Amino acid sequence: MIISRLTLSVFLLSASSLFSASPLERPIESPGFWERAWGSTKKTTDKIVDLTKKPFGKSSSSSSKGEPVWNQLQVALKVDPEAVKLSTTKTVQVNVLVTNLGKKLVQLEFPTSERIEVVLRGNEGKVLARWSEDQKVENEPGLVNINPGEYLEYNVTISTRDMQVTGSYQIEAYFPSFDQLRMTKLIVPEK
Predict the structure, then answer these.
(1) Are the C-beta atoms of 133 and 117 separated by less than 8 Å?
(2) Which one of 1, 36, 173, 184 has the minimum C-beta count within 10 Å?
(3) Could you read off the pLDDT of 116-138 as tens digits, one per residue?
(4) Angstrom distance (rounded) from CA 25 to CA 63
(5) CA-CA-CA-CA torsion sign (54, 145, 67, 116)
(6) Which tens digit of pLDDT belongs to each residue from 92-106?
(7) Contact 122, 51 (CB under 8 A)
(8) Which CATH code fits 73-187?
(9) How far is 148 from 105, CA to CA, in rounded Å?
(10) What distance in Å separates the CA atoms of residue 91 and residue 69, rounded to the nearest whole number?
């Protein structure tokens, strides 16, 4: 009992001396581990562009010129072989590349497991082949991050069975959840 009273009185004396000291006399305390960890998350989250909230509108994290955030993404489409000979080519390899040209991380949120769609269209816009028809799509949402200077790459194969030498065709690649990320390429098959 005497020890606990002694401990309490020492504690009260040290606390009263701490509170009675002027602000200049108080020891300066540096932030602890948790304060530094929390502070570091505040600094880095300012660098993230969240396209799930306002994917194509202006937001507080848009560029200084007032451009929409999605303009920092560039879509490229490559078809192999470029010259399609229907007598020898049964499929066309389509390569879709999305590059983050900005200085902030971009997050793309998808409602299903389908990330990309590639469609082969005829002269009048009729869909001749759709890549996702024979793909398994799960009803699971997902999030894809693209760091500054990095890219996403998707390789898809499209059949040429419905193509004829007499027409021109369009290969269109896009992200189902983000309509602005779309690219088309014209193909004129040879005999």
Answers:
(1) no
(2) 1
(3) 899 999 878 888 888 888 888 88
(4) 46
(5) negative
(6) 899 999 999 988 888
(7) no
(8) 2.60.40.2360
(9) 6
(10) 36
Can you say whether the dihedral through the CA atoms of 54, 142, 182, 97 is positive or negative? positive
* pLDDT tens digits in sequence order for the chain, 191 residues long: 556 665 555 555 555 544 544 444 545 556 666 766 666 665 444 444 444 444 444 444 444 333 446 778 889 999 988 888 888 888 889 999 999 998 888 888 888 888 889 999 987 888 888 888 888 888 888 888 889 999 989 999 988 888 888 878 899 998 887 888 889 998 888 87
| Token pair belonging to 92 | 């066309």
Which amino acid makes up residue 170?
Q
Alpha carbon dihedral 13, 18, 22, 26, in 10-degree steps, equals: 140
First-to-last alpha carbon distance for the chain, in angstroms, is 103
- 81 residue type, one letter: P
Collect all residues with Cβ–Cβ distance below 8 Å to 168 and sequence separation of at least 6. Answer: 123, 186, 187, 188
